[in-house]
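Q&A log
Question type: sequence-to-structure
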Amino acid sequence: MQLGWRRVLGPALTTAVAAIAFVVDRHFVTVPNPAPLFVCIVALVSSINGIASGLVSASVAVAFSALLFLNHRASPGNDVHDAARMVLLALTAGGTAVITGMLRQKWVEAFASRQEQYATSTRLAAALDQVDIGIVLLGADTRAEFINRAFRDYFALPDEVADTQPPFIALMYHGRDTGAYELPEDQLAHFIAARTKAIRAGDSTPININLADGQVLRFSCTALPDGGRMLSYTPVTDLVRPNDAPERAEYYRARRKNRRPAALEGRSNEQEAISRCSVLPEKLMLAARQ
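Response status: OK
Response body:
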């Protein structure tokens, strides 16, 4: 049966301090009222092991204080005064134990809830990496707080770039610089400006984005209650380009096959999810409720 060092820490510490104070007061010098020190010890014990241990320590403190008061009493006239001091110490130490213990319990519950939310968001992040829909979660400042695997693959976005939480416009520029969009050069600037403006406005109108490798993604934006945005890129190539010539389709497939960055090869989906799932647990939970 394991008793646990924390269960005996409070009473043992209180007893040790009180015994030392009693010995010093009896044989060396007069010790001033140790009540403030006892209250601090009770608060420490309650914060470590809860209300029960704090109350035990408070009881020990009151008992040893009574011995000190009896040792200092010079005449019977001090009985009422000593009793008042003892009651005050008992109320203060007991109240400190209860209040500190309650605060500790609230902190423990909050920490457990936080851990549960983190575990849920970890599973959600791993699940989002298994779908073929690109998902990007933006904060209120339009920085990418989460980017799933599908988006990184569609736009050949290396992990070292995605994990720095780049702003949305930087993702657009990355697509431009890597030639991801099937657009003429003179239209790219207008396209990027229009998409950035629509994101900031929370425009949910879906549009199709043609990629240079032949894929077509249906882009949509969802405004989140905290001011962020959830962007989705759904592949609709088979719906939009069902009549492509066979040789053209083969050309597109070849380009898609070569778009996965070399830095991502050899990494399992589980490893990728674990490396990124802690980016923004709250944002993932918020987006899941939308």
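Response note: Residues 5-116 form one domain.
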